[in-house]
Amino acid sequence: MMALKAKPISSPSPFFRYSPQNPIFFLPRLLSSQTPIDSDDVDTVYRIVSSSTHSKNLKQNLKSSGVFLSNDLIDEVLKRARFSHGNPLQALEFFNYTGNRRGFYHTTFALDTMLYMLGRSRMFEKMWEVLVEIKSKDRNLITPRTVMVVLARIAKVCSVRETVECFRKFKKLVPEFDTACFNALLRTLCQEKSMTDARNVYHKLKQSFRPNLQTFNILLSGWKSSEEAEGFFEEMREMGLKPDIVSYNCLIDVYSKNREMEKAFKVMETMRDEDISPDKITYTCVIGGLGLVGQPDKAKDVLKEMKQLGCYPDVAAYNAAIRNFCIAKRLGDANGLMEEMISNGLSPNATTYNLFFRVFFWSSDLQNSWSLYERIMHTGCLPNTQSCMFLIRLFRRLEKVDMALQLWNDMVERGFGSYILVSDVLFDLLCDMGKLTEAETCFLQMVEKGHKPSNVSFRRIKVLMELANKHEALKNLTEKMALFGSSIHLPEGMDRSTEVLPSESLV
Question: Which of 8, 253, 398, 412 fits a 20 to 30 Å CA distance from 344?
Answer without folding.
Answer: 253
